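Regression check, zinc ion case 430:
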Amino acid sequence: MKTIPSLVAIIALAISSSVVAKTTVIHAGELLAVPGDKPLKEQTVVIKDGKIINVVKGYAEATKFGKNAQLIDLSDRFVMPGLMDMHVHLQGELSPSNDSEALRMSNADVAMKSTMFANKVLHAGFTTVRDLGANPEEIFALRDAIDKGWVNGPRVIAAGSMVAATGGHGDVDGMKAELIEKYTPKTICDGPYDCRRATRHAIKYGADIIKITSTGGVLSDTNTGTGQQMTDDELVEIVETAHGLGRKVTSHAHAAAGINAALRAGVDSIEHGSYADEESIRLFKENGAYLVPTLLAGDTVVNLAKNSNFMSDAIKAKAIRVGADMIANFKRSYEAGVNIAFGTDSGVSKHGINAREAVLMANAGMRNSDILKSATVNAADLIDMSASLGTIESGKIADIVAYDESPLKNIEALLDVDFVMKDGKVHKQK
Ligand SMILES: [Zn+2]
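Current build output:
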């Protein structure tokens, strides 16, 4: 049986090397090479071995770049860098059957299902995501399988299981005690030293980033509201430990006290930020931290609370309150100049409709050009990958999408992507 692993390795190598065409040349009718700048008409993008090697003015002939160079004609399209969603959960989707699925599905089932969600997200034009809370073994395997070209999906920056307080958001709830015991992740912690251990534990098993929950959450059925749940000393210890080990920290946070405590401790981003106040805005700007608004999650839970019957009354009440407040506070943070990175919390909403976040951001008053920047340049900065992602420039990874209308003019253009390339490989072409 010893030959099997090597055979697997050979097949994997064959797949990953066939992924990359030799040289590909794109004729872009309109090219937004650097979101934030103005788009340019009639440009040629040259791609080799998965990387962008040149961007030239006008439509250059493909054969100029090699006699087998392949031309992709997007001369009637708007071309831009692949979108990046900074908050997803690729292992599932919120539904009334979540409880029974937790009992019926094996970890392998969950991992297999997550490959379907990953594929949907990629086909929606999202070439990079941050997965902020999942069963660690399965999400790290998905991340690595995508990297190796075994399955198709966006590049995944994964947190694994969240570092959270006992009984807090991120811990298990809503089940009988024996099951709660069984499902409680090893990253649940109390007190600074225990949270230091939990942070190290997450990193030991493969976390790219540490996700914490400094406040309660809308979907926790613990009747503990959305106030601060992790203490200042825990937050400081987690951030110091994670940063020391080269990992960024992002905190789920709704109430201002929890947002501000996390920002004071030095987190790199805040998810949701529903009740950000003046002090939060000051701290965001002082630290250069990012807000990941997740308006789509707010919108989804408000709709579910009003139109479905599987949430408890406590969750419904929280959802309606937070969903509405989130929009007003996002608008205030944006107008005050807080760094914004695009993120949906997909998994709460369905996978593949991630671009709807952009429409909600526009409805809340964000300029289209800033929305596109939040999903490319800003997201790349947040994950420290500005050198390789976020723009279409020489030397960067060839993650490229195209639309039949300019999203700078009509943000809803993002809802229907015509062309998706990741690592130089075409995944969708209409
Ligand atoms: Zn989330």
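Comparison notes: Residues 87, 89, 132-133, 345 surround zinc ion (CB under 6 Å). The longest strand covers residues 70-81. No diff flagged against the previous build.
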